[in-house]
Amino acid sequence: MIEDAAGLKLMHLTKSRLESLSDGIFAFTMTLLVIGLNLPDKASVIQTPEYAAHVLLSLHSDFFHYVLAFLILGAFWLSHHIGVHPLCALNRGYVWFNLGTLLFVALLPFTTSFSGDFSDVPFGAIVFELNLLAIGMGMYFQWIYATGNYRLVEPGLDRNFIRHGGLRTLVVLAVSLIAILVALTGNLYSTVLYMFIPFVHYGIPRWEKKRGEVIS
């Protein structure tokens, strides 16, 4: 680990550079999501209020997946910020974990558009959910790698904070696994399960607080 850290210093790779790259990819990906809202070719030919309303309503699945992906990416960005903030060192392993996670972050506009275009078949949702599962796994392994044996964080970092961070990163991962299983049954609305993520995040600290009171 010491050799890795020294090597990164020689390359002038600092935590701020890692955050800048990550923030840039998150921002670009969130902006790129809107490109998936495509109008049909006939929209430039048929110029009637009725057809315009029909086209807008026909894009309901695309709009839903756009909003869902944007909000989930926002949650991922926040988790990434929380995960990087306590780091006091970097090594090559963490940098490659981060790049692997960003690989799937940048893929999300495609899978979001794919899911919206194939909203009538479960496979469309599964592709989207597999993408989110991969991002969630990347976030989780980054956190475990950095905090395991206090590899890249201060030895005195609160263990409750470490456990809470791990639980937060597991939420999207767990929801994605459940959503994929639901989609495999033929259900076309498996992505709706992601709407429960804010409630799970809201409940985690309260569950930990009650758990701590019971143990004490």
Structure description:
The chain has 216 residues and is mainly α. It has one domain (2-215). Helices cover 74% and strands 0% of the residues. The chain has eight helices and no strands. The chain has helices at residues 2-10, 15-32, 49-58, 60-84, 92-117, 122-147, 159-184, 197-215. α2 packs antiparallel against α4 and α4 (60-84) runs antiparallel to α5 (92-117). The longest helix has 26 residues, at 92-117. The two termini are 37 Å apart. The model has no long low-confidence stretch (mean pLDDT 84).
SS field, number of helical segments:
8
| Mean pLDDT metric | 84
Largest sheet: none
Described by the principal axes of the CA atoms, the overall outline is globular
Provide the β-strand percentage band: under 5%
Count of the domains: 1
Order of helices and strands: HHHHHHHH
Distance between the termini: 37 Å
What gyration radius follows from the Cα positions, in whole Å?
A: 20 Å
The tally of beta strands, per DSSP, is 0
Question: How much helix is in the residues?
Answer: over 70%
Low-confidence stretches: none
Structural class estimated from helices and strands: mainly alpha
Question: Would you summarize the structure shown here?
Answer:
The protein is mostly helical.
